Amino acid sequence: MQTLPSLNIPSEYNYIAIFLTFKCQLKCPWCINIMDYNRSKLSEDGEFMTTKKWIDALNRIEAREDLPLSIQGGEPTLHKGFYEIIANVNRPMDLLTNCQFNVSEFMDCVPRWKFSRNAPYASIRVSYHPEQMDLYETIHKVRTLHDKGYQIGVWMIEFPGREQEFLEAKLKFKEAGIDFRGKELLGEYNGKVYGTFKYSNQVPKKVLCRTTELIVAPDGSVHRCHSDLYNLRPGIGHILDENFKLDREFRECVGDISCNSCDIKIKNNRFQVYGNTSVEQKEIDNEKDNNVSDVPYSC
Predict the structure, then answer these.
(1) CA 117, CA 66: separation in Å to the nearest integer?
(2) Where exactly are the structural domains of the chain?
(3) Cα 56–chain centre separation
(4) Counting runs of H as helices and runs of E as strands, what totals does the chain give?
(5) What CATH code is assigned to 7-193+213-246?
(6) CA atoms within 13 A on the CB side of 194
(7) How is 235-274 classified by DSSP, letter by letter?
(8) Contact partners, residue 221, CB within 8 Å, separation at least 6
């Protein structure tokens, strides 16, 4: 089979999100990735890309060494070819996981260097959910990997009303020598909006938008924002299309939709410098900007 041409990532890009699957063992009621009927279709075995296709797709990506492939989901280790994919991809990678996998099997199949690089945060980032996960079991798993030399840390949503659970987890992980960090809740809860956002989540009638993230869905379709991804709107291409290229053009949003919090929140970039936002928006009038793509795009 002929090798696919390289897919070059623009230098302005800050993140590469690889969604191997939307499947997850956990059922957190507030999760941004909760399955609805449409998205659940992408979790069926016949709907996401095969192991071989993922390997071909990820190895064609050309980006700076400090811009890893962030392997995620759902829970990425639930892809039946997860270990084979990791073994055969030759680019720097990070892993976002709930750590519900078998730790011994993971260490047997994944050498430490696969998720190891010089960065201000861990390459393996565990999302801890106290309502679904046992604290001490999670500490044991993470500490086992940490003691074997894996770059691993733990993140937890600072959920309103659960401050005591957060403080307990922070204390216990710190006592175990594990990097533990909080993440703010995004969106509305009990009538209050949480998160720090650059733009409104309600897209104006006419807006142009461009991204700094490559987002690849479980079926290989490429999306320019999480709102498109999670709502199964058409992508802007496919990761296996040899003619697909990324650009930095502004695209016209379809309007009358809601932005996803991940796209419009103000956050740290991959160097942990605060002030980054995934997308850039600007409102337009009736006259089209000459630098605007004709491809509809929602952010």
Answers:
(1) 8
(2) 7-193+213-246
(3) 20
(4) 8, 19
(5) 3.20.20.70
(6) 14
(7) -SEETT-TT------EEE---SSBPPHHHHB-EE-TT--E
(8) 234, 235, 237, 238, 239
pLDDT in tens, 267-282: 887 888 888 888 888 8
Distance CA 130, CA 154 (A): 12
How far, CA to CA in Å, does 288 sit from each of 78, 102, 211, 285, 292?
45, 54, 19, 7, 7
Q: Is the pTM of this model over 0.85?
A: yes
Those residues whose C-beta lies under 8 Å from the C-beta of residue 234, and which sit 6 or more positions away, are 221, 228
Query: Does residue 213 contact residue 280 with C-beta atoms inside 8 Å?
Result: no
Give the residue from 183, 192, 190, 128 showing the smallest Cα distance to 154. Answer: 128
> What would the DSSP string read from start to end of 166-207?
HHHHHHHHHHTT-EEEEEE--EEETTEEES-BSS-SB--SSE
**Which residues pair with residue 16 across a beta bridge?**
69, 214
Structure tokens at 287: 């006259």
Give the count of beta carbons closer than 10 Å to the beta carbon of residue 146: 19
Are the C-beta atoms of 15 and 278 separated by less than 8 Å? yes
Q: CB 280: neighbour CB atoms within 10 A?
A: 16
Position 220 pLDDT exceeds 70: yes
